[in-house]
Amino acid sequence: MSRHSDTISLLGKDTFELVQNTPILVVGAGGIGSELLKNLVLVGFSRITIVDLDTIDLSNLNRQFLFRKPDISKPKALVAASTAKQFNPNVDIEAHHANIKEQRFDALWFKRFGIVFGALDNMDARRHVNKMCISAGVPLLESGTAGYAGQVTPIIHGLTECFDCQTKETPKTFPVCTIRSTPSTPIHCIVWAKSYLFVQLFGEDDEAGETSELDKAQAEGENAAEIENLRKEANAFRAVRKRMIEPDGPKHVFEKVFKADIERLLSMSEMWKVPGRVKPTALDYDSILDETFKLSTVQKANSAPSDSSSSTTVTSKKNATVLKDQKQLSLKDTVLLFKESCEQLAARIAKDPSTPLTFDKDDQDTMDFVAATANLRATAYSIETLTKFKIKEMAGNIIPAIATTNAITAGLLCFQAIKILTNKYQELANVFLTSRPAQPIIRMRPQKPNPQCGVCRDVYIPIACDPSRLTLGQILNEIVKSPSTKTTGLGWGEDAKLSVFEAGRLLAEPDWDDDPDWMDNGNKTLKELGVEVGMWLTVVDEEDEEDKHDNVVFAICSLSDSTATEPYILTYPLPDVPTRPQPISAPVSVSDPETSEQLVQIIHHKRPLEDDDDDVELIEGESRAKKRKVEGGEDVLELVDDEIEMLD
Fold it and tell me: So, what pathway does this thing act in (predicted)?
């Protein structure tokens, strides 16, 4: 009996051949992504590419089961691929420890895949992958979880609404993948302070269980050096925990967490080669208190100014007022708050060692500790510091990720993928996982695309080019205005009135022939105009409303053929560009009030494209041009894989 005989019996031979031969892309190797990768390998997918930027953290291990303790600090994508291959050594998994927004992952690269699975943990990347899939014409299966809620959404350009079609409220959602190693926002620091550091110092100390787990890993032949590092880390925390009651207890904690640990991270040179990551700064306890510690320019901008007069009020917790909680403390005051909260919490532990402490936002001591340590970590990573009042608001509303939710969502993704492979688009559904016992899974027919969506209403054309040689004028004259044939242009005509945008930047307008500044833009290369591979150029027809074409978006891709004599290559025939339809409303309705309440964070009414000119930057001089916001509003998604979500 073959490895996949049961799957062949269920799917049929023809469908299973599609499963085996279709190249697929998984973006994200976290909570959903790791579960999904395991499922895909077991189902029989054998041509898989996975991309993830994050590294494995200790907090991931309770819900991301492809990872174990020896894998801590290693790239998620590489470890997930290696572990998944143990389920089926014959599968071909190409793993990238990288940012999906890098230039090499352009629209033509996306076009290689039959299906893209989105298992991401932040809004910016989700919107980017959505637009890339729209550009490449590749089906996208978007997914997310938050607590016990989950969702799977198929996105097929022209058939279903895309990620940006719906108006979404702006929830405070935050990934946990980077909280421990590379925080970049205040909430990362708050979650770290509340869910990790506080528990390590004042929560339950499971020394026996941790030692047993490490001994077992070592006996099974795991990396001895990694295991030894984990033992040292656990012992170091245990040592400072025992010294908490000493007069210098807070200082010992500070020097371990904000100095020694940061210096250890800085020694991992590979971690800081990733574009966009900011190296932290090790903090010094004594020099901060004597006000000789020097902050960087970025740290100064994100921290409160030093105010020696406030130091006397920081430690007077008994008389603290809401007004003082709303004051942003200086770095020195923050250290003093850290010192006093450590002393108070250590005294409570010493009084009753058998009862571990738990975080409570209404507990003055625990809230002071979380506020102080979150702001100290923020300072170390050049992140904005917040008032205690704001930190209390954010820390009191954290929803953790749940492993079973990720597992169920990953399974639902596989069901939808089979329907896409077999072209059963009529059977596709938006699937929602809820906490209602009577109706844990809700299926809804996908909505049609929103005609006013700022992303999927447009016509996309990937163009392989050399931005240092291709000019803006060539795109407009040789492609857009050129007569429409199978091997030339779109045929909009020499007299077409065109505007050109890159995101919020206006690069051309209809009357540029009469303006030397705009003529200069036509002769400039894309590179000179700041347009690079991975960006999009939107061409807008400025004819009268009844005659105007849909927007055409050129997805700028790399020219892989270095010997090409022409500055660009197009894939013919070019798509037909219809005239724009009139706006129609397409509200979503749910008849069951209880179901509506379950899905209130997921389902919203359609939104029109806003005619807002505040976000448009004019390039090359003062223009008389009519300005238009090409991109839609700043939409965000409520359900996010492997993340912390703040609820209003």
Answer: Protein modification; protein sumoylation
